[in-house]
Structure formats: C-alpha cells, structure tokens
Amino acid sequence: xxxxxxxxxxxxxxxxxxxKSFVTQFVAEGITNRYRLxxxxxxxxxxxxxxxxxxxxxxxxxxxxxxxxxxxxxPTQGDEFTITGxxxxxxxxxEVTTMVNNALLQHVGTRTDTFGRTITVDNLPGIEEYPxxxxxxxxxxxxxxxxxxxxxxxxxPDGVTIPRSERYRQLMEMIDARRExxxxxxxxxxxxxxxxxxxxxxxxxxxxxxxxxxxxxxEVDDKSFPLxxxxxxxxxxxxxxxxxxxxxxxxxxxxxxxxxxKTFSGYYSxxxxxxxxxxxxxxxxxxxxxxxxISNNKLVNITDVTRTxxxxxxxxxxxxxxxxxxxxxxxxxxxxDEFNGTQTVVSAPTATSFTITTxxxxxxxxxxQEGTADPYGLKNYTxxxxxxxxxxxxxxxxxxxxxxxxxxxxxxxxxTELYGGGFFTERASEAVL
Length: 433
Known about the structure:
Layout: H1 4-15, E1 20-27, E2 34-36, E3 48-51, E4 54-55, E5 60-63, E6 68-71, E7 80-87, H2 93-108, H3 129-148, E8 154-155, E9 161-162, H4 165-189, E10 250-253, E11 258-266, E12 271-278, E13 286-289, E14 291-296, E15 300-306, E16 313-318, E17 329-333, E18 341-344, E19 347-350, E20 353-357, E21 371-375, E22 379-387, H5 389-392, E23 398-407, E24 416-426
C-alpha cells in the first residue's frame, strides 16, 4: 500500500533530488541567534544541533528553504556548534508533498473503488503508484522551468555568449518526455487522466431497474457455488458523493462468519446498546441487526431479592463482588416496575449483596429473582458484533455499521451513535484466507 512518504521518495528519485548529508561547524560570536548553514534547502525534521557537544535540537528551529538555524537564546561568545542533517538540490519535503497530493487528486479525479469509496493514497492500487509519481515529477519540472524562464542569455564584450535559456529548453523537453510517458502508461493500463472506459452490455431488470448479476461460466457437472463476476459500473458522468465513514471500516466475506470486537470506556449505566447495518449514516432504515454482546467490568447478575413482610428494605444477592458502598447509585433492570431504574444503595452487608429501600412493604420474591445490577461510574466495555455465515450471503456490498445506545427504560428513546463506519462485503471468491 502506498503512502505519501513512499511517493515523495519516488518523486525525489525521478528528479535526482535525493537527500545528501552535511556537517557544519561554527563558533558563536555572542551577537545573534541566527546562523546560516552552507546548504539549502534542508530536511528540518532530521537535523541535529549540538552545542559544546550537548544535543540542543529541541531548542533550535530550522528554516527549510533558506537553511537558517534559529536558536532560542543568543549563545555565549566562543560556544562551538556542530549541525548535521540532510539537504536537497531543489525542493523541500513540504513542496514535494504538495506536488504528490496535487498529482494524486488530478490522477484519480472522481473515480471510486468497487465499494464506492473515493480513491485516496490509502486505497490507491499498487499499479498506479508509479504513474502518480511520474505526474508529480512533471509538476516539479514545471516549477523548475518557471524558475529557469527568468534567466537571460549573457553576452560578454569579447563575443563569448552564455546561453542560460538553454536550461529552460532542456527542462521543457524533459517535461514533454515525462508527460508522454505518463500518458502512455495511463492508456495502456486504463487509468488516470487518459483512462479509456470499457463497458460490458448488461441487462437491467424492468421490475427493479437494477442490473441482473453475471456469473462466471461453469462446466455442466460442476456442483460448486456459482462465482459472481464483479463488473465495473458506469458512472454516466455523475460525481459520486464521498462515502461517509470514520477510521473504523469493516469488511466481511460472503459465506464466512464475521466477528469484530470493540473496547471502550464511559458512563453508560442505565443505557442499552444496539448494533445495526444501515443504508447510510444517520439513516432510520435498518438493513440488518447485528448480533451484539456487551460486557462491562462491573455489571453483576441478580440471583435473589428478598424482603421481610412489613419492611421497606429489600436485599439483593448477586453472583459476584459488586464493589458498591452505601450511597452509591445502581441501575437495576429485569426485576419489576418497583425496582427497575436508578436506585440508591442503603447498605452493602457483604461483597455479594446490597440493600435498597422503597415504599412497598410486601415481599418481592423469596428465591431466584433474575435481573442485573449496573453500578454507576466509569467502566470498561467490550462490544462484540457478529454475523453468521448465512447472514453474510445476504448483504449489500456497501452499508454502514453503527454501534449506538439509548435509555433502557424509556420507550422510543433517542438513539446516540458511539461508533460507526463503512461496512463492505467482499465476494467469497475474493476472500484471502
């Protein structure tokens, strides 16, 4: 997978602008804190500054384009400085990065991948890395040609001529050669700004206005599962909207089980979680409910609720240590309308029991009263969402997954999303296992 850094390195190789190391030494005069290096432009991120043998890089700044070192304070006269790093012939790292970004944007245009996601450096096909670097190289040569265009020929009195405009002519010839190289690659590979779109005639259903799927040819005695052909869909000149997603994009494979675990922390006592596949972010239409299991580090199961007749205090017995003390808030669920909801712990006689006082005076239950007790406070949660193999067969290629929560006891409560992102389904034939 390409990165901006790898593309920048490729462009530097094409331009012959690879980094070269240098060492500069000088003695401070005690007058200024600005000192010019003998090299520019320089790689400011990897420069080391030593004062009398001590590393003071963190107290110095370097101007990349001019090669000037600026110290935080004016050094004492006689201090010895040694500065090491890399310098370039033409461009700073920021300048080459800008060229790469511009080349990438123009190269991919409005194209999207098979899931409808805008193509960026993260999902740029490997075969297109070199053409992008070539086009960025052309942009860099244009910059050098612009600079050379301001040079004029020098005519000496003795008849000697220095044709400085020759550099401009050579750069333009290089630009034409690189531009032709980029065009030839794009035409042959069917990519970039010279891409030729080729369509296959497809049949569209009159009932649904959707393409009828195409399957790979198979022998008559072949009993294996039919393999679907992924044909590119024509854009008809429209501009697809970027697919809304955050950094957590998930991918499932047709016919295979899918499981994803998300850990997070927060104050979610009294909340119920849900996980769904939606048509898009914020949609009210649910494509499918995801199988969801939520656990936290303080939730306990209620195994018994007892109360002596004529009293208002009930004792709750739980299956593990609850960690609560008198005065803590706890969310009870699964008992009855009297106890369900936020309650205050009156006492905690043991590590696995606590008491709650209400207005009722009759016994709730004697044994095996089932429910949960969720103490309020910051807790660590683990959410596991999953799909069965059969469920993954019946999904659209692109949906949106959402993990959200709402109030447990409020009917039609407002739903708040915690996490979400693109959910993509690969064909079974494309799965790499």
